[in-house]
Specification:
By secondary structure, the chain is an alpha/beta fold. Helices cover 36% and strands 19% of the residues. The strands form five sheets. It has a seven-stranded parallel beta sheet with strand order 3-2-1-4-5-7-12, with helices on both faces. α1 (15-27) crosses α6, α3 runs parallel beside α4 (145-164) and α7 (250-261) packs across α9. It is globular.
Length: 313
């Protein structure tokens, strides 16, 4: 009889972690899901009750205990403090919670012969990219400490593969949004920020003219591809952009959300230090992970808005 296999998800109370845990529990009953989160950016309510949950900080707490108690087959390392715009003002915290925490996870993966580490990086590693188009093979040139930390994590993981035989897959997701997002954090995804602002009687804010372009991804479209990043042989030691097929300006994205809500007012603030155009290539995610763009922005925002209205403010 085949023993149950076990996956570990760090950041299991956040958007990616909680929704992937839900997906695995619903679709892969032969797997046990173990989750770590310190609840600094996620919420206990997001965590599926079937997850074996450890409330821990990846920097200070004995995460080696988790690897000793559970025989971990695959690790999805999603835990991070993803506040790109804030990162220049919290440099030490940024490097601790992104680079140092990842180094500890890498060590445990090596020591316990984990079959593959799936790491979620960020399109922030590209910086301005090649005219705003981000291809996996191009040279990374991040413009803020958050992107620098994530790029360093990517390099450390690859070196661990060369030196210690660690198998890995690096995913660079793009502007993921959806149910279970932290809409209360003003440094995270702009769609959630606008929902929070509107629900609290505030104007929705746009930095600069709103002509910045992004490609948003509804979380549910990325769940099975994330799973494939762990189990597919062809995803071994690959770096893959995930999501973001439909390009849209920030001001047009706000228009779609206001159509969904049925009201809302936009206020423009002074422009800030950010990438003007951030559009990833996506063919590799289709070829290797079977990514499909199933959910239009209007459909995804409708589902997220219906959820957000029920949340405590």
């Amino acid at each position: 009889m085949q023993m149950n296999k076990t996956v570990l998800i760090t950041g299991v109370a956040g958007l990616l972690g909680s929704r992937l845990a839900d997906w695995i529990i619903e679709n892969k009953p032969e797997y046990t899901v173990v989750g770590i989160d310190d609840l600094s950016g996620g919420f206990k309510e997001n965590v599926n009750p079937k997850v074996k949950f450890w409330q821990m900080n990846l920097i200070e707490h004995p995460i080696e205990n988790i690897f000793e108690v559970h025989k971990i087959d695959y690790v999805f390392h999603f835990a991070a403090y993803a506040a790109e715009g804030l990162s220049p003002f919290i440099r030490t915290y940024n490097y601790d919670n992104n680079l140092k925490s990842t180094a500890r996870i890498i060590n445990e993966c090596i020591k316990h012969d984990v079959k593959r580490l799936v790491f979620t990086s960020t399109l922030a590693v590209y910086g301005h990219g090649d005219g705003g188009i981000f291809r996996e093979e191009q040279q990374q040139a991040p413009i803020d400490p958050y992107g620098i930390a994530k790029y360093a994590c990517e390099m450390d993981i690859q070196v661990a593969g060369l030196q210690h035989g660690l198998d890995w897959c690096i995913i660079r997701p793009h502007n993921v949004y959806g149910i279970k997002q932290n809409i209360w954090d003003k440094y995270r995804n702009v769609l959630g920020i606008w929902m929070y602002q509107h629900l609290n009687g505030m104007d929705m804010t746009i930095f600069g003219d709103g002509n910045q372009t992004r490609a948003f991804s509804y979380i549910d479209d990325s769940l099975e591809p994330l799973w494939n990043a762990a189990i597919r042989p062809e995803a071994s030691k690959e770096i893959i952009n995930l999501g973001g097929i439909e390009e849209i300006s920030i001001k047009d994205a706000s228009k779609v959300l206001r159509e969904v809500i049925g009201s809302g007012n936009i206020v423009h603030l002074e422009g800030r230090h950010e990438v003007k155009h951030s559009i990833p290539t996506f063919q590799k995610s289709i070829d290797l992970l079977d990514f499909e763009y199933k959910t239009s922005m209007k459909q995804g925002l409708t589902e997220m808005w219906n959820w957000a209205k029920e949340q405590p403010m």
